[in-house]
Specification:
21 helices; binds phosphoenolpyruvate; alpha/beta; disordered C terminus; eight-stranded parallel β-barrel; binds magnesium ion; globular; 46% helix; eight-stranded mixed beta sheet; single chain
Length: 578
């Protein structure tokens, strides 16, 4: 036996050790048969679709119970595929015209559907292709009269698979899943999102290295740095046990104080708020100590639907979130589609470089009617609350001036309809394009606040597509180039009396805390589960100590050096690569 280490992408933090359970999906054999009675095949298909729908609804209920309603939306998308008119027309047409069995027609049509989505070369759509395949397999199994069988785990295990579908992830017995590891998938795949919400360590994107993991093998999984140690020796086990124990200890301690403010060792208070991507997430953030919402991504309202939501629908959704957060600050970002997030109801042209195309605010300004509806809904929902409106993907001052005009138009329209709306509402922009960071002193004059989006700022600064696994590691928010831009932004804003938040993944990384404190960041916004540890990290430093650390880090040569330096005095097990 020899100790080996393989690497993937750390998708959900936590360290664990245990035996590998290879989760192999059973091959489905679908043969083409001649079907004389096509109406019998059509009826067979109808029954199978109805059963699939019932099963998916049951799964959604289970997920809602286990991990909250926002994650159940994955299964709502699955249900939509079952009634997709184009897909059904294709399948039914094939049964009629070719006299083939329903499972064969279904298989061929769904395979084509998934292949078309994959061929578009977009990570978001590729993930939708995996959804189509998940649903397709379910329907074939039902058509073939096979009972659903969840993998039976006899002991707590580390699940290893080529790809884990959302159905797999939620049907496995969570009490026996120590970690999820998959050959495919990126940091934004469903398994990554679900395991983070479930608090289970996960590593994705292992590639061919996953083949080295065999059933029953003992391994150590570190979801923070994406490392798997195969057949660890006694020394490796002892070291990881120690890390796991101290991580658990730090997490428990942090959670106990999660609802207390984050006050630095010399008394300076720092605001810690949550990023949310769906209305159902708002109440849960309070448990982790969120002092408000620093980023509400409104895309969930617009994706995967045939028509855009109207003003009343949007007002109702935003109002519900404002109610939950009472008088706490809530930063709502206007629609940020384009790039890796397409909208089905807009006729969006195919772009060679969608991340450099009509994305975020550019798209809103190009569709003023849609933009006006969202602005009016936001202004209405803000009445009586502490709403701040934020705009994504700003590159120039002209865009901010155009936004100001659009807000005035929306206000005038509400006045003319005699509808009440929020009178005092801060207006801010995301700093995620290098030009905006470089022009922060000019932009600070025309906005009330900035929120730095390091996910995009890193990809644009280092010219490395955040969704392309081959270059994504280059887009490291701890690269001194990104940190220098962050310094410029904070200095410029403060010189103009404006505050600065940071809502990219970097804000939730305890490793980055002293650097960001040293640079003078006013507000940290992150996924709620990260809040307790980040608050804990904030409490450890004085302003002077943090400044010293940030000054040193900004003089380093690359991201690797920054990480090494910061890890030397931070708790490495609690940080994952961003
Ligand atoms: C960012 O770019 O850092 C950000 C928070 O926005 P998103 O991840 O939604 O692009
Ligand atoms: Mg962004």
């Amino acid at each position: 036996m020899s100790t080996r280490t393989i690497h993937g992408v750390g998708a959900s933090v936590g360290i664990t050790t245990g035996p590998v359970f290879r989760y192999e999906v059973r091959e489905q054999v679908v043969e083409q048969r001649h079907a004389e009675d096509t109406s019998a095949e059509q009826a067979h298909l109808d029954t199978a679709l109805a059963q699939a729908q019932a099963e998916i609804q049951a799964l959604a209920t289970q997920v809602r119970h286990d991990v909250g309603s926002s994650n159940a939306s994955i299964f709502e998308a699955h249900e939509m595929f079952l009634s997709d008119p184009e897909l059904l027309e294709e399948v039914r047409g094939m049964i009629e015209s070719q006299h083939v069995n329903a499972d064969y027609a279904w298989k061929v049509s769904t395979e084509q559907y998934a292949a078309t989505l994959r061929a578009l070369g977009d990570e978001y759509l590729a993930a939708r292709a995996a959804d189509v395949e998940d649903v397709a397999k379910r329907v074939i199994r039902i058509l073939q009269g096979v009972e659903e069988q969840a993998a039976q785990l006899s002991e707590p295990s580390i699940i290893v698979a080529v790809e884990l579908t959302p159905s797999d992830t939620v049907t496995l017995d969570k009490h026996k899943v120590l970690a999820f590891c998959s050959a495919r998938g990126g940091a934004t795949s469903h398994v990554a999102i679900l395991s983070k919400t479930l608090g289970i360590p996960a590593i994705v994107g292992l590639g061919a290295a996953a083949d080295q993991l065999r059933n029953g093998m003992q391994v150590i999984v570190n979801g923070a740095n994406g490392e798997i140690v195969i057949e660890p020796d006694a020394a490796a086990i002892a070291s990881y046990r120690q890390q796991a124990t101290s991580l658990a200890h730090v997490q428990t301690e942090a959670q106990e104080k999660a609802c207390e403010p984050a006050i630095m060792a010399d008394g300076k208070r720092v605001e810690v708020v949550a990023n949310i991507g769906a209305p159902g997430e708002a109440p849960g953030t309070l448990v982790y100590g969120a002092e408000g919402v620093g980023l509400l991504r409104t895309e969930f309202l617009f994706l995967e639907r045939a028509t855009a939501p109207d003003e009343d629908e949007q007002t109702a959704v935003y109002s519900a979130i404002m109610e939950t957060m009472e008088q706490r600050p809530v930063v709502i970002r206007t629609l940020d589609i384009g790039g890796d997030k397409p909208a089905t109801f807009l006729d969006m042209p195919n772009e060679m470089n969608p991340f450099l195309g009509v994305r975020g605010l550019r798209l809103s300004l190009a569709h003023p009617d849609m933009f006006q509806i969202q602005l009016r809904a936001l202004l209405r929902a803000g009445a009586g609350h502490n709403l701040k409106i934020m705009f994504p993907m700003v590159a120039t001052r002209e865009e901010v001036l155009a936004v100001r005009e659009q807000i005035a138009v929306a206000q005038a329209s509400l006045v003319s309809r005699d509808i009440s709306y929020v009178q005092h509402c801060e207006v801010g922009i995301m700093i995620e394009v290098p030009s905006a960071a470089l022009m922060a002193d000019v932009l600070a004059d025309v906005v009330d606040f900035f929120s730095i989006g390091t996910n995009d700022l890193s990809q644009y600064t280092l010219a490395a597509d955040r969704t392309n696994a081959a270059v994504a590691p280059l887009a490291d928010a701890l690269h001194p180039a990104v940190l220098r831009l962050i310094r410029m932004v904070i200095e410029a804003a403060h010189a103009h009396g404006k505050w600065v938040g940071l809502c990219g993944e970097l804000a939730g990384d305890p490793l980055a805390v002293p650097v960001l404190l040293g640079l003078g960041l006013d507000e940290f916004s992150m996924s709620a589960r990260s809040i307790p540890l980040v608050k804990q990290a904030i409490r450890r430093y004085t302003v002077a100590q943090a400044r010293e650390i940030s000054q040193h880090v900004l003089s380093l040569g690359d991201a690797g050096e920054v990480r090494e330096y910061l890890s030397s005095f931070s708790h490495s097990a609690t940080s994952s690569k961003k």
